[in-house]
Each structure stands twice: as structure tokens, then as C-alpha cells.
């Protein structure tokens, strides 16, 4: 099983989503910024590294929002989604095809990676009262 981390980054009533590069697995699907946890790395450290590599930002990692295990045809991932906030920088498309800030009500307008579906359902059901 592959350990993966991702960030739920809010800016007022919108959260950040990223579109995967066309040439990667699940290309052009939308996701939360993040990636694989390297051996010997904490989940929090992995998330800070991934946000720096993929968006050029420094994040402060908060509490876990949700954990999901999902099996794709090519791998099984255990995804930990953390609340995170931007401590420094402005998100840039260093690896992704596109970036968007969306409201939960806009979730149905985007095609997300299957592992994110349970998370998206929870976001849709919240009125941001967390």
C-alpha cells in the first residue's frame, strides 16, 4: 500500500484543487495537492515537501481532515488529507496542468481522482462549520 498525503487549503470560502499533468496516471483529473510519503519521512514533512515541489509554497500543516484507502487498477493508496494553510508564497503551476480555487458547491463541475470522491462528498455535506 502506498502512503499518500494531501492538503486541504482554504482561502475564505474556496479551497485549492490541482489538475494532474496529462502524461501522468489519471491525467487531467483534479485532486488536492500532495504526493507520496518517502521512507523515513513523516506525513507532515511529506506534505510540506510536496507543496514546495508542486506549488512553490510553504504550508503549515494542521489537523487531519479525513483518511481514505482506495484501490486503483495499478496501486492501492492510503490517503491522509490534512488541513493546511499557506505560510509563504503564491501557488504556481510547477507540476500541474491547472490550479483552481473552488467553493464546495462547484465540486460537481470537476472530474476528480476516484480516491477523492469520499472526501468530496464530506466537503459537500459541510457548511464549513469545522
Structural features, described:
The protein has 130 residues and is α+β, with helices and mostly antiparallel strands. The protein has one domain (2-125): Nucleoside Triphosphate Pyrophosphohydrolase (Alpha-Beta Complex). Helix content is 17%, strand content 41%. The chain contains 2 helices and 7 strands, in the order ββββαβββα. Strands 1, 2, 3, 4, 5, 6 and 7 form a 7-stranded mixed beta sheet that branches. The N and C termini lie far apart (30 Å).
Question: What features would you highlight for this structure?
Answer:
alpha+beta; 130 residues; seven-stranded mixed β-sheet; Nucleoside Triphosphate Pyrophosphohydrolase; 17% helix; 7 strands
Concise structural overview:
By secondary structure, this protein is α+β, with helices and mostly antiparallel strands. It contains two helices and seven strands. Strand 1 and strand 2 form a beta hairpin.
Return the string of H and E elements. EEEEHEEEH
Rg calc: 14 Å
Strand content: 35-45%
- CATH architecture, please? Alpha-Beta Complex
CATH class: Alpha Beta
The total count of strands amounts to 7
Number of domains as seen in the coordinates: 1
Largest sheet: 7 strands, mixed
Q: What is the fourth-level CATH superfamily?
A: Nucleoside Triphosphate Pyrophosphohydrolase
N-to-C span:
30 Å
User: What do we call the CATH topology?
Assistant: Nucleoside Triphosphate Pyrophosphohydrolase
Tertiary shape: globular
Taking pLDDT < 50 over at least 5 consecutive residues as the criterion, the unreliable ranges are none
Helix proportion range: 10-25%
Average pLDDT over all residues: 94
Secondary-structure-derived class: alpha+beta
Question: What's the helix count?
Answer: 2
Amino acid at each position: 500500500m502506498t502512503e499518500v498525503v494531501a492538503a486541504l487549503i482554504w482561502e475564505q470560502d474556496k479551497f485549492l484543487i490541482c489538475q494532474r499533468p496529462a502524461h501522468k496516471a489519471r491525467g487531467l483529473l483534479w485532486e488536492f495537492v500532495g504526493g507520496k510519503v518517502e521512507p523515513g519521512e513523516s506525513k507532515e514533512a511529506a506534505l510540506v515537501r510536496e507543496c514546495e515541489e508542486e506549488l512553490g509554497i510553504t504550508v503549515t500543516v494542521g489537523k487531519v481532515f479525513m483518511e481514505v484507502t482506495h484501490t486503483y487498477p495499478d496501486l492501492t493508496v492510503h490517503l491522509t488529507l490534512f488541513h493546511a494553510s499557506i505560510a509563504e508564497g503564491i501557488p504556481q503551476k510547477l507540476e500541474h496542468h491547472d490550479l483552481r480555487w473552488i467553493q464546495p458547491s462547484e465540486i460537481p463541475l470537476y472530474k476528480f481522482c476516484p480516491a477523492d470522491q469520499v472526501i468530496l462528498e464530506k466537503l459537500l455535506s459541510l457548511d464549513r462549520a469545522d
